[in-house]
């Protein structure tokens, strides 16, 4: 059993049913409850793309004057095992539900529900032997719109042949408007710690993620809308390699994705402060920035989404066929700004790949392959003072004295610049090593010079070797 699936499936299932026992109050609840169950189960069917079968079943509804009791089974199956969680919710009838009225809240709502989900015996071991998955509260307005919050208790999973995963208490805030089909979702998590079988430790601190999304019936697996994310620190540590660690501090990201006819248009950015540590020595690499844009076939991306859940699935033949279909339908990928900047300067790369529609069966030569590229470019700039500063710090981290570290750094970067100049791949001055490659319908230009047809293949091969040697690949 994959460790992350236990937590992932539970959270995914709870996200559908945590809105509680009913959309309606009193007698309306009984009349409409089966409709609610059907909606919930239709949403849960989407988990089938990830190898998870889930269903709300065995619903029992008992109506009282001021409240109703709702009991149900939330059954999830994956990796050959079945987990049956028991819902035991208390639904307070509107217009002034007693649980809100007792706290002085006089705003009328259709109903307010207190969620309580019990764990089965075969899951309690992952929750420190607690009885509850968690608990929450939801309010349903007369329009059917829902707002709520659900807290999941800490999770800890450990298997000798897999590693371990630990999550602190997590808080899920959500809202849904059935009229517009818009959803808002927020996750707050103080700590996640994952240790794999090779003792590589990943520690995440202070996660906050918000998503405003709208569902689309034609492309149900696409996350359409806007998101913001922040992480106080993401630290990756190799406990068997001299306690080497890499940290991304104060990470933040924003992005959006929307449909334009049969295309999905996505953009996003991210930034973080990168730091390396070896034993007690720390090295600040600088400020990392990234800005991405993508325009691809919506159906292909919808079909590919389930394969993104694991490297093994993404490497499968089926996923490869989907990727090929996406590439055949004029994809566009743009890295507007990928950079690392320290106090001495900025190193950056930009990439724009735009393809024509093409039939892979008609690509018979290298020239015909080049002609599918339109207005594509790769633009890179390495700042020499910035690289020297970085190399000096790396040498100091390896134990060299300041003066020796500086001298070694200058020699290393000087050799890099000489190699770039000798290869004719880049233009070199006192401050920068620069390279710009453009490909447009079969024509290749490198640093302002049109590359003759007989030199194109060799130039591109040498270019990739050169970029690899400079750490750009």
From TrEMBL:
Highest taxon listed in the record's lineage: Bacteria
Pfam families: DUF945
UniProt protein name: DUF945 domain-containing protein
Biological source species: Actinobacillus indolicus
InterPro entries linked: DUF945
């Amino acid at each position: 059993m994959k460790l992350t699936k236990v937590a992932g499936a539970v959270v995914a299932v709870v996200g559908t049913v945590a809105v509680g026992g009913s959309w309606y109050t009193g007698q309306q609840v009984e009349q409409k409850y089966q409709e609610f169950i059907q909606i919930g189960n239709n949403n849960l069917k989407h988990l089938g793309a990830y190898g998870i079968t889930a269903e709300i079943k065995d619903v029992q509804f008992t109506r009282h004057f001021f409240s109703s009791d709702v009991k149900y089974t939330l059954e999830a199956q994956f990796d050959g095992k079945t987990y049956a969680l028991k819902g035991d919710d208390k639904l307070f009838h509107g217009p002034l539900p007693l649980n809100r009225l007792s706290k002085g809240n006089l705003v009328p709502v259709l109903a307010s529900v207190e969620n309580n989900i019990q764990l089965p015996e075969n899951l309690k071991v992952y929750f420190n032997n607690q009885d509850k998955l968690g608990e929450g509260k939801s309010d349903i307005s007369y329009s059917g719109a829902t707002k709520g919050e659900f807290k999941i208790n800490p999770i800890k999973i450990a298997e000798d042949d897999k590693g371990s995963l630990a999550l602190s208490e997590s808080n899920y805030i959500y809202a849904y408007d059935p009229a517009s089909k818009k959803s808002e979702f927020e996750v707050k998590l103080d700590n996640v710690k994952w240790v794999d079988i090779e003792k590589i430790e990943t520690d995440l601190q202070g996660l906050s993620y918000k998503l405003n999304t709208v569902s689309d019936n034609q492309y149900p697996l696409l996350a359409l809308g806007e998101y913001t994310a922040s992480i106080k620190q993401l630290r990756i540590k190799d406990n068997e390699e001299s306690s080497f660690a890499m940290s991304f501090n104060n990470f933040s990201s924003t992005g959006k994705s929307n449909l334009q006819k049969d295309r999905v248009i996505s953009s996003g950015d991210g930034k973080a402060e990168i730091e390396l540590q070896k034993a007690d020595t720390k090295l600040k690499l600088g400020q990392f920035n990234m800005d991405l844009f993508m325009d691809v076939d919506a159906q292909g991306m919808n079909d590919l989404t389930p394969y993104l859940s694991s490297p093994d699935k993404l490497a499968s033949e089926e996923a490869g066929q989907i990727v090929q279909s996406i590439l055949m339908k004029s994809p566009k990928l743009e890295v507007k700004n990928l950079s690392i900047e320290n106090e001495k300067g900025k190193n950056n790369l930009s990439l724009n790949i735009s393809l024509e529609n093409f039939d892979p069966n008609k690509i018979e030569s290298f020239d015909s392959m080049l002609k599918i590229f339109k207005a594509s470019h790769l633009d890179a700039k390495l700042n020499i003072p910035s690289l020297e500063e970085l190399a000096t710090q790396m040498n100091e981290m390896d134990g060299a004295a300041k003066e020796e570290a500086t001298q070694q750094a200058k020699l290393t970067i000087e050799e890099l610049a000489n190699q770039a100049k000798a290869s004719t791949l880049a233009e070199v001055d006192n401050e920068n090593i620069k390279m710009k490659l453009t490909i447009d319908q079969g024509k290749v230009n490198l640093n302002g010079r049109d590359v003759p047809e007989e030199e194109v293949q060799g130039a591109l091969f040498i270019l990739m070797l050169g970029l690899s040697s400079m750490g750009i690949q």
